[in-house]
Design brief:
- By secondary structure, the protein is α+β, with helices and mostly antiparallel strands.
- The protein has 2 helices and 2 strands; from the N terminus they run ββαα.
- It has a two-stranded antiparallel sheet.
């Protein structure tokens, strides 16, 4: 996938039901346009979205 760098899933030590999923992209557009509007995202959505309760909050960050 264009712009994809890496991803990692981390489990919270204080709350066994809490996780953080970090995905690194080269640009914001690679994620919100390239991935979110792709055939691969539709497949991801179909396979995984029913596992989320509540649906995860998506936020975008940059290194400083």
């Amino acid at each position: 996938m264009k712009g994809y760098i890496s991803h990692e899933l981390q489990h919270c030590l204080e709350n066994e039901f809490q996780y953080i999923f970090l995905v690194k992209w080269e640009t914001l557009e690679d994620h919100i346009i390239g991935f979110r509007q792709s055939k691969e995202y539709q497949e991801w959505k179909q396979l995984l979205h029913h596992f989320y309760e509540p649906f995860p909050k998506v936020e975008h960050y940059q290194m400083i």
